[in-house]
Structures are given as C-alpha cells and as structure tokens.
Amino acid sequence: MTQFINTRETLVTEAIDGTLRTGGGRLARLDGYPHVKVVLRTDWDKSKVALVSGGGSGHEPAHAGFVGQGMLTAAVCGEVFASPSVDAVLAGILAVTGKAGCLLIVKNYTGDRLNFGLAAERARAQGLKVAMVIVDDDVALPDLPQARGVAGTLFVHKIAGALADQGADLETVEKAAQRVIGGVVSIGMSLDTCTIPGSPKEARIGPGKAELGLGIHGEAGVEQVDFSTAADAMEMVVDRLAPKLGPGPHVALLNNLGGATPLEMAVLAEELLGSRIGSQVRWMVGPAPMMTSLDMQGFSVSLMPVSQADEAALSAPAAPWAWPGCLSVGPVAVLPLPDGLSPIQPMPSASPETRAFIESCCRRLIAAEAELNALDAKSGDGDTGSTLATAARALIGALDRLPLADLTQLYRAIGLELSQTMGGSSGVLLAIFFAAAGDASASGRDAIGALSAGLERVMQVGGARPGDRTMIDALAPALEALPQGFGPAAQAARCGADHTATITRARAGRASYVGQDKLAGHNDPGAEAVARLFEHLAG
C-alpha cells in the first residue's frame, strides 16, 4: 500500500520533528537520534514527580502527543510497534527526574516491561527514586495470565498527571495509578488490519467480518464475528465489558484506532450511550484518535469507575494537544423549529389505488439502491441509490398522513416530505418538481400536464436541460410520451438514459466535475433511476 512516507528507517524521527515544529516551544527532544527518541517538556523544573511513558510508535498521538503540563513529562518512542531501548528509557528518566522522583507508566508487553524495568533499575542505582506501574486493561483474552495494556493507559496518564501537577509525592501518585489500573477495562474491534509501513497489508479479516478483541499492534483478535451495523458491533463490545463493571458512575474513553471516520465514531458514541450500560456512563473522553494502531479501521472502548477525586483529576486542565477533554454526557437538546418552518400538515385521505401506486414506485427505487450507488460511484460520490431509497422509505412511512384522494394536495405534500427527508440537490429539485406540479394541478392541468409543469420549473431553477447528462434526459422524453401510455414512456426514458452514456461532458450535477474518461460508457444514475421506474410501471 502506498503511503506518505520517505523511508521506513527515517519515518519515526521525521514524524517526531514534524510534531515538535508546531509545539510552540513547549516540547523538545533529547539529542541522540536515531537510537534515543525522547520527547519532553521544556518548562519542567524537576520540582515535582515526573511521569514517563512510551513504547513503540504507530499509536500516534500516543505517546508524544500527551506530553505537557498535567500529563506526561516525557515520552520515550521506539520504532513502529517496537519497544524503545533501555538506553533511550534511561535517558528519558535522567532528563526529567529530580528529588521528587519519577513514575514509569508501562503497557503490559514483554519488550516494554523488560526495557523500562531495566532502565528503572539502572536509574535507582544512580540514586534516583523511580517507581513503575504496569497497565493491563485489555479484557479480550480472559485466560491470558498477563492482559495487554491498551487505551485505558490514558486514564493513568491523566489522573496520575493531575496529582503530580498538584504536588503529590511519588507514593501518592503511584497508589493512584495502581488504583486506576485496577478499575479500568478495555476492548477493541476492527473491520480491517493495519498497514505497517514498508510491509504488505495482511488480508486477515474477510468481507462482512469484524475482529473483536484485537491488540494495538495488529495482533489477531480473540475471534472474528459477523459484522452488520454499528449497533451490533457496540453490543458485542458491551457484552464483553458489562460483566467487568461494578456499580456507580463510570467514564468512557472512546478511542479511534486510526482509520474510522469522525462520522463513524460519532455513531459509535451514540450506540455506546444508548446501550444497556449507557446509564452508568456519566463522562466521556473522545471520541477521538488517542492510542491508534496506524490506519486500523476500528475503535476501542475503555471504562473506569469514577470517584469525586477522579472526576476532579479527569477534568483538571491539561496542556497536551492530544487530550480531547473529559466531558459530561446528557440528553440531546431539541429546540422547536422557527416560526414559518413548522409544516402545515394536509388532511390525510384514503385512496387504495393511489397508495398502492406510490408504494410500488418506492419499492422499485429501494430495490435498485445498490446498483444505482455502484453506477454513481463511476461518475459521482456513489450515493444516488441511497438518496433515492431513503426518500422512498420515508414516503412509504408517510402514506398514512398523505392526502391520497386529493391529487393537487398530494403533489404538494410529497414535495414537502421530500424537502425534509431527501438530502442533496436531488431532494431540493424533486421537492420543487412536486410543488410546481401541485400549483399546476390547482390551476386545472391534468396529471401529465402538472408533471410537465413541474419539469419546466426544475429546468428553470436548476439550470439543466436535455443533453446535460442528468435525470432530465430520461424524464423529459418520458413525460412527452406518457399520453400514449406507460409502455412508450418507458421506451423513451430508456433511450434517454442510455444516451447519457455517450455524453462525456456533463453540464450540471456532480458529474460536471468528473473527467470525460470517467463518464464514457456509463449511464447517468439519475436518468437510470427514472428509466427503471417507468419500466416498472410499464410492467
């Protein structure tokens, strides 16, 4: 997989320097590249307990992103997924440790334990007070004698960091860290493996599958599970975490493992807070990328019981840019629409024939969702099918409140419904189409005349004409042939839709931004939807 790197050998040192250049002078690194990669505070005077953590790179923004007042004093960075050397850890300890001592916060991996542990012994031999805690928050492998340390480590950074910043002694800071470690539980899930720089991507997780309980170094999870929705994914994660929770309020840390979009992470946050343990989650850190696994398309959830002292420590100011803050969660606030935007609902009326006609059209559009999306992906953003299907589903759900027996009011009601439920420019144009059809029907025009008036208004407002490679290329000839019946209308729509495959320069819509080579040979998805709809009506 192609990546924005220069060489694997210089990746980590270049990334650290790139981070430090925008640090505003608050952070620095020790000399000693490439073997010693230590990021530390420049405002540190050694009068308080120092906090040192670190490990392999590839988890950015951890660990260097959490160096600053209120959290870490120094971060010792290794190569990608590799523990830093004993000398590098010792250099970090010696650089920041004064009479108050130093606490090492280590994730439970063999390399980290050994290298940090030996560095601690060497530092103690030089007369320094050094304590070390091991974070083992991962609950994915219950039979493992030593659980892995994952994103719950950040709770230790924050709470121990707040106490150290307030002047607590080493014993107090260490005890607090151990208490946090004893209460934190974490587990992750991913839809894909990560891409290690300079190495081919491992295709371990198949289509339709997710991996539950995988590690932050790309290790295989405890099991592969069927994936369907974000809700089901979060339910599986909650099932593993719930038995580990005690009573009382908890804080959740929702961590992006690197490749999930902010949109996905927001949905996962909603699912977590709406789950069976959601009532116990009073605060949330994130969702944000905090301890990633390169580009892994996954997430992890860490939970910790919270005392009043913990709440204060989690909410205490922290300088590191990577800490997203710990915020209380609450209900969604909903305000009424401004005056003039609350729709006046028409009086519903029944017409079994009209109801069946509308529902049949909507079902056809829903059935074509995937194929229209695939067609749109060749010339647009791949969502035409979903946009139409979403509107169709909403229209089916609105049938009981529509004036089905009054065609004039029905056109207007459909336009209003589409303006509220159908996204993008397509929703606006179809809302205009049906609103204008309703006005024409009120003026005495028959159904075909009303729909033709709607098309004229769409062309006037939208600026597209036949030949511009839009749905109008199928809709205009279909309406022109409609007085002869659905069969001729369907033939005309099909000819118009197929003709769009020969139009290599779109003059309207998203396809107008796409190169000619991407358009040739592919029907416009909007025109194709119109053609399929009329073919369905023709039977």
Describe the structure.
The radius of gyration is 30 Å and the shape is elongated. Helix content is about 40%, strand content about 15%. The protein folds into two domains: about 10-195 and about 205-330, Rossmann fold (3-Layer(aba) Sandwich); about 350-539, DhaL domain (Serine Threonine Protein Phosphatase 5, Tetratricopeptide repeat), CATH 1.25.40. The protein is built from 18 helices and 13 strands. GO terms for molecular function: ATP binding; glycerone kinase activity. This is Dihydroxyacetone kinase.
Provide a brief overview of the structure.
This protein has helices at residues 11-20, 86-96, 110-125, 153-165, 170-183, 230-241, 262-273, 308-315, 352-367, 369-377, 384-397, 407-421, 424-442, 447-462, 472-481, 486-499, 516-519, 525-538, and strands at 27-29, 38-41, 50-57, 74-80, 102-107, 130-135, 185-190, 209-212, 223-226, 250-256, 281-288, 298-305, 326-328. It has 539 residues and is of the alpha/beta class.
Q: What count of structural domains?
A: 2
Radius of gyration: 30 Å
Q: What structural class is derived from the secondary structure elements?
A: alpha/beta
CATH superfamily membership of the largest domain: Dihydroxyacetone kinase, domain 1
- How many beta-strand runs? 13
Strand content: 5-15%
Instruction: Record the strand order, biggest sheet.
Output: 9-8-7-12-10-11-13
State the CATH topology of the largest domain.
Rossmann fold
> What is the CATH first-level class name of the largest domain?
Alpha Beta
Distance between the termini: 48 Å
CATH architecture of the largest domain: 3-Layer(aba) Sandwich
Instruction: Give the overall pLDDT as a whole number.
Output: 91
Q: Count the helices. How many? A: 18
Q: Tell me, what's the shape?
A: elongated
Most strands sheet: 7 strands, mixed
Parts with pLDDT < 50 across at least 5 consecutive residues:
510-515
